[in-house]
Amino acid sequence: MPALLRLLLSLLLAAAAAPLAAVQAQPFRGYSYLLDCGGAAPTTDRRGLPWVPDDLYVSAGESLKLLDQGLLDPALSTRRVFPHSPSAKFCYEFPVDRKRRYLLRPTFFYGTYPPSSPPPVFDMIVDGTFWTAVNTTDDSLTGSASYYEGVFGASGRNMSFCLGVNPNYTDSGPFINALQVIQLHDSVYNATNFTNSAMGLIARTKFGSSGDAEKYPGDSFDRYWQPFLDSKHAVSSTHNVTSADFWNLPPPGVFNTALVAEQDAPLVLQWPPIHLQNDSYYVALYFADTLTENSRTFNVYINDYLFYEGLTVTSAGLSVFATQWILSGLTRVILTHVSGLPPLINAGEVFGLFPLGGYTFARDARALENIKRSLQNIPDDWNGDPCMPHGYAWSGVTCDKGLKPRVISL
Ligand SMILES: *[C@@H]1O[C@H](CO)[C@@H](O)[C@H](O)[C@H]1NC(C)=O
Ligand SMILES: *[C@@H]1O[C@H](CO)[C@@H](O)[C@H](O)[C@H]1NC(C)=O
Ligand SMILES: *[C@@H]1O[C@H](CO)[C@@H](O)[C@H](O)[C@H]1NC(C)=O
Ligand SMILES: *[C@@H]1O[C@H](CO)[C@@H](O)[C@H](O)[C@H]1NC(C)=O
Ligand SMILES: *[C@@H]1O[C@H](CO)[C@@H](O)[C@H](O)[C@H]1NC(C)=O
Ligand SMILES: *[C@@H]1O[C@H](CO)[C@@H](O)[C@H](O)[C@H]1NC(C)=O
Ligand SMILES: *[C@@H]1O[C@H](CO)[C@@H](O)[C@H](O)[C@H]1NC(C)=O
């Protein structure tokens, strides 16, 4: 399991005078959800994105208002807090298109806390698959929210996103402030086989920029492209790039800046800026010449291994990617000159890959759904997959340990 980086989301300071962007009813295509967890009424954020309360999609938990109101993005100012029931998972369920894949971005903001009671640590689960543990301790200390991002293929009519009360490290109930679920275009990350794996974001970066992260509406799926400045090498583009036919549909804005090598020297980047576990990763890099009607050719190395030889980058731009590239420890991306002007790079993404966990034997899952429908008082953790992941079966249900687990007792 690759280490999954917690990315910082700096709190949006609610500048009282900032005008609201025009409200847009349908910003994303298909099945997409912007859930304000614990919220009481629909709100619109400063980008004009409409958020709705989460109670239509979840049955457990209670709403809690944060004390430091006024400082927060409206979607973060409340959270839903789930009971502390060891080994229970509490699930959101939302209708999806089973042939498509989805970006999931849960956001957690605990607020200030006394040193004696740090925020709870808990697990995230999508359908039957363990995703990663949520630990907001360090971010809370710096007053930041924590977000995680994953890409998952749908496998049924509903997708479930759950918080698991891991008995090994939690002594209070899990919580969540916001959950985004955005349907991706079929061509985005389509080289990964989502029937047997999923991806967890490690870094998504626009190079040579010091401004704000690039998000919606620049990025049609509200992916966050974080700035990465190295002022010695930063340049701005002299033209606009149309990226509508690029693999993965990067937002055109990431091509406004780049990092460029000095004459006769390679460009060496330490990126992503964290230690990675020895594992295979999805790596995509994006390039466009910053001058009009120009092109340059260079080699791309990642940690001394040739990633792409003789890459010719034109003003129109292109992306290159590897679906399974072994990385370990700190990563260096090195661009070496072949011909034309010095090499440059505009943007990049790295994801960890992890295998799907499987699902309860379908007939048993259907039988449990029928039992659930006949019950008056449904246990509040009876959502999501009944048996999976192992250790997180519905309360009162015992399952075997098979690949498609069967229910043994009830
Ligand atoms: C699918 O999700 C919706 C919305 O949360 C829920 O009302 C419905 O019961 C779910 N269907 C199943 C079979 O779980
Ligand atoms: C808790 O720790 C034990 C022992 O390390 C492990 O077997 C078990 O899977 C863990 N439980 C969860 C839910 O991660
Ligand atoms: C959560 O993170 C904090 C700070 O990095 C660390 O001290 C703590 O051990 C972590 N908790 C768990 C359960 O991993
Ligand atoms: C992925 O999408 C690209 C761009 O639309 C397309 O050219 C390619 O054939 C697709 N690949 C797969 C494996 O579906
Ligand atoms: C994806 O993986 C599944 C299960 O391993 C396999 O049956 C299928 O052929 C794979 N699809 C592609 C396009 O490789
Ligand atoms: C690029 O597009 C922006 C916004 O549409 C426009 O303001 C700018 O003038 C364009 N730049 C060039 C060099 O065409
Ligand atoms: C990473 O793992 C692979 C295969 O498991 C192994 O061959 C390689 O030596 C490992 N690399 C490092 C740096 O540990």
TrEMBL record:
Highest taxon in the source lineage: Eukaryota
Domain named Leucine-rich repeat-containing N-terminal plant-type is located at 363-400
UniProt entry tagged with the keyword Signal: yes
Where in or outside the cell it occurs: the entry states: Membrane
Q: Which InterPro entries match?
A: LRR_N_plant-typ, Malectin-like_Carb-bd_dom
Q: What residue range is the signal peptide? A: 1-25
Please report the stretch or stretches of sequence annotated as the Malectin-like domain. Answer: 35-351
GO cellular component annotations of the record? membrane
Q: Principal place where this protein is found? A: membrane
Query: What topology does the record note for this protein and the membrane?
Result: Single-pass membrane protein
Q: Which UniProt keywords apply?
A: Leucine-rich repeat, Repeat, Signal
Name of the protein described by the UniProt record = Malectin-like domain-containing protein
